[in-house]
Amino acid sequence: MDSKPSADVPVRRPPLPVKIVIAGGFGVGKTTAVAQISETPVLTTEAPITEVAAEVDRTGLVPDKTTTTVALDFGTVAIDDEVKLYLFGTPGQDRFGFMWHDLTVGALGALVIVDTSRLDDCYPAVDYFERTGLPFLVAVNLFDGRLAHELEDVRWALDLSDDTPVVTFDARDRASVRDTLVTLLRRSLAMASATGV
Amino acid sequence: MTTSWWEPAQGGAGPRPYVDIGGPAGDRDPVAASSATSGVRPYLITQGRARPNDTSLRLEAQVSTTDDGARSLSRLAYERHDIVVLCHDPQSIAELAARLHLHLGVARVLVGDLVEAGLLAVRHPEDARHRVQIIERVIRGLQAIS
């Protein structure tokens, strides 16, 4: 229904788009998670990073302005006959700071995937989401099915508030990714209800 | 041209068909491959603009061809033409960028121009007023996935 060629139908009513951002360091399982849940093949586009310095405040860590690009992987899920969910996976590194606003404005929430052996990879994403008030969840990807650190240690190390969910999941498992997204959205729902919008 | 060269290659492309930009052409359509590696600086296409005139254009905003757009195809060339063709099937700016091998920023500027010209229509994401209902719908939709 979604992918039918439209030669015979001039213009279809576009879906209502919503999005969730999937952040985390390189190789942490973002694209794997998107691919598990996406109904369409994961697409990749390139976003230029030329405005880096403007929006990142950790000046010591920001490289000179460059014109390199960062790959953005994304997938989609048709939620019902109107709503279409976009899942944008992005490397959560300091030097990609400028993209955060474009990526996250209007998002329902963000999933921060962490590898406990490289916990500091996710600091910029966590900082940004806390600062902007975007609902987020920290998901520890279980590489090899083992958890190297207790979840409470992760919460402590990232200095997360008590109401930020910290869960384990398996980026290679569709049901696990689905359940993690639902947990995130329950948090989003609680925050949206609390603000009365 | 009657063949839809802009459509992704069928089969054999793997799960990330657009990721091999700049690499060997492989089994990809030669026209698409050459356009992906044309060496044209992205912002030459947009006459130097990095931002669309309408900065509220989000990456997930849905873009579709208007009747005017469909009638104007013969006047359009290159990326603008391809965008108006692709948007017969409504899709996001991000999807357009991926399918046409354009940088996101470039796709956004071009879409902004075409919207201003009345050749494309945009469906923006819903504002915050219906946020609770939309989140509930997305939760239900995800839970229905087996």
UniProtKB/TrEMBL annotation, chain A:
Entry keyword Transcription regulation: no
Keyword Transit peptide assigned: no
Gene Ontology molecular functions: ATP binding; GTP binding; hydrolase activity
Keyword vocabulary terms for this entry: ATP-binding, GTP-binding, Hydrolase, Nucleotide-binding
PANTHER family: ATP/GTP-BINDING PROTEIN-RELATED, GLIDING MOTILITY PROTEIN MGLA
Similarity comment: family membership: Belongs to the GPN-loop GTPase family.
Name the record gives this protein: ATP-binding protein
TrEMBL record, chain B:
Region called Disordered, residue ranges: 1-39
Any Pfam family: DUF742
InterPro entries per UniProt: DUF742, WH-like_DNA-bd_sf
Alphabetized Gene3D superfamilies for the sequence: Winged helix-like DNA-binding domain superfamily/Winged helix DNA-binding domain (1.10.10.10)
Name of the molecule in the record: DUF742 domain-containing protein
Species name: Catellatospora coxensis
